[in-house]
Specification:
- By secondary structure, the chain is α+β, with helices and mostly antiparallel strands.
- The chain has four domains: about 30-80, no CATH class; about 85-170, Alpha Horseshoe (Serine Threonine Protein Phosphatase 5, Tetratricopeptide repeat), CATH 1.25.40.10; about 175-240; about 245-300, SH3 type barrels.
- The protein has ten helices and seven strands.
- The protein has helices spanning about 30-45, 50-80, 85-95, 100-110, 120-130, 135-145, 150-165, 175-180, 185-205, 210-240; strands spanning about 245, 250-255, 265-270, 275-280, 285-290, 290-295, 300.
- A five-stranded antiparallel sheet has the order 6-5-4-1-7. A two-stranded antiparallel sheet has the order 2-3.
- It is globular, with a radius of gyration of 28 Å.
- The chain starts with about 30 loop residues before the first helix and ends with a strand.
Length: about 300
Amino acid sequence: MRQIRGQRSEVRRQGTGDRRQRSEARGPMSNPLGHWILNIGYWILEPKRGSFLGSLSSRFAPCAAVLLLLFALAPAARAATPDPTRTFVEAAGAYDENRLSDAIAGWESLVDQGQVLPEVLFNLGNAYYRNGQLGRAIRAYRHAQTLAPRDPDIRANLGFAAQTAGIALPARHPVAALLLDAGRSEWLAVASAAFWLLGLSLAAGLLWPRARFALRPAAAACALLLLLACAGLWTHHRLRQIPEAVVMAPGQKVLSGPLDTSTPLLAIPEGAIVRQLDRRGAWIEIQTDSTRGWLPASALQPVL
């Protein structure tokens, strides 16, 4: 039996440098920056009667005081911001020590801070899986796959979790699957490069008419590449227009209508990936394979 692949050790940092916290309290006079700020503030706020500088200081003293206060508080605000690298390492340590609730809380906090990265989602999916939360694990893996569609570890763990849940991953059209093998950011980069190269080729053809014969194949290739990139972006757009959702609650049944008394069409297990078509109040119309029906909104969570 295949085993779930281990956690990732990388995470991107926000900001510059690694900030270390010291145990001792530091006052403004022990900080050279704070000392410099106090000296400048004293010079601005000190009365200078009978001089041009005195009139300027009295006129702009309130604004300068506010700016200096904000500048002095900026390092403290930066120090209070959670360090994503430290949070990631602490969550990884909790995962290794089998403190799964702490690991999940740490990686979820990174996602809430905007660190929606494949490494974070991959490790979050691993923690969910070991904690017995198959639906959340499959959702995290699927989200990670949309960001890094060619990652073999993400693909393997998603397949392993789906096999454990007893579900089959949704089949995609071969062309759509090929286009989704590149991420949205990758298609954006290709489209931008193809657009500018096409423009340069056309401009060069106008400036040097004798080179048009040689530039036509290059312009045609750029145009085809631009169309391919637009097709990839459109496929990702359609994936967000008709988003995927994961069934989070066990024992759910797809109903024929948005009512508790509607006819059950089929049972759907926890972790199943469906497409969200419509919403009416507390009910969501979904499609799984060729079946369309309704599920409670509380039983689903969107992938993106």
